[in-house]
Amino acid sequence: MERYSYFIRRLLLMIPTLLGVTILVFILCLFVPGGPIEQAMAEMRGMGAGGGEAGVSAGGNGAAVGITEDYRKVLEKQFHRDKPIPVQYKIWLIDDKFGMARDSYKYSNKTVWQLISEKFPISLTFGITSFVLTYLICIPLGIAKALKNGTPFDGISSIVVLAMYAIPAFAFGMILKTLFCGTSDQFWDLFPIGGFRSENFDELSFWGQVKDQAHHMFLPVLCYIIGNFAFLTLLQKNAMLDQISQDYVRTVLAKGGTMKIAVWRHALRNALIPIATGIGGILSLMFAGSVLIEIVFDIPGIGLLSFDSAVNRDFAVVMGLITLGSLVAMLGRILSDFCYVLIDPRINFGKEA
Description:
The chain has 353 residues and is mainly alpha-helical. The protein has helices spanning 2-31, 36-49, 69-78, 85-95, 112-147, 152-166, 169-180, 206-244, 247-254, 259-271, 281-288, 291-296, 302-311, 315-343, 349-352, and strands at residues 56-59, 64-67. A two-stranded antiparallel ribbon has the order 1-2.
């Protein structure tokens, strides 16, 4: 019962934490230059310089263009900037449903939620795929390195793992594009240069769609994997080495059990506890994706959307992404604690709290 109360308290604490994050970011967005009012005025100045007159007062030959005070007040009212900050935040929080119902400044025909819901499945696909492959490779490899600690296999695999870790994921992606995407006549043209799917994806058969999707995802997924590959592999190796040295493993061996039985039936569960810390982070990866990898491979996911929103000062989308990203990160922390309990039921967070 104490364990359940711990998770309930963690869920309840998410509410004030999320509100605190959104209040801070909301106030920062209000005072950062280049907001929607400034963008609208800059656009009108450009129209005035080209001969437009609506809402613009121009003098002389039109070279000097100014925005009338009435037009500025119209913009302030449109974006609720004529109201006190608490009222503005209340409108964003309640009336606009955490800003999800607001229109994007850049994509004026779409709301923030529509943009996020369009991009999220793409980042989710890459997040789940990379997560599953990373853990399927790193856990067995880490266990194998622990069992063969000090052997040539351990030394060679460590060199390869650390060499991959030393290469930034986006730089690795650029290398892969150069070698395998036909960007140069000197190398191979085996994979598409970017994108998530082919333009004729809907016209393909089922297996054709599977092949096309795998064809586009292969290189980006490799980049996703190397980001945590070395860390998880070495973490699993060290955790397994620590468990193998414990007395309970010696007891199993002393009773006639083999090392295979000692590892897979007894030591593995305890060795997985440190690995559980990274499971919660997969939620953030699924939601946010990787900005640099999506830019390199031109993948229209959440990462690329967040980059475009920041560059274009689309604060409505930025606020929406930060809000959902914070929520997902907090849920990920709780998921990590839940995985601890599943792996080792003896852990009782309730007593610690």
